[in-house]
Fold this protein.
Amino acid sequence: MHTNPVIKRPIDLWYADRERQLSPSDREMSDQNFAARLRSACAGDLTEARPSLTYDYFQRKLADQQRYRDSIASALDKLLFQKTTGH
C-alpha cells in the first residue's frame, strides 16, 4: 500500500522478515533496523530540499514538516531505546 520508495523498502524488508522463521534476537534486530530506517527517512529529503527553497512561505512549510518529522524521529528513538535497554 505504501508507494513512496523511501518508506516502501523498509516496510517490505520488515514484512519479509515477519514471514521468515527468525530467532528472538534476529526478530528484535529486524525491528530495530526497521525503526532505524524509518528514522533515517524522516530527515533525508528535507536536507536536500532546504537550499532550493527561497520563498518564505515554502521555508515555513518546510520548518513545519521538519518539526512533524522530528516528533516521529523522537518516537522512533524512544522505541529503539526501549528495545535496546528493555525499559
Helices lie at 5-19, 24-41, 44-49, 56-85. Residues 56-85 form the longest helix (30 residues).
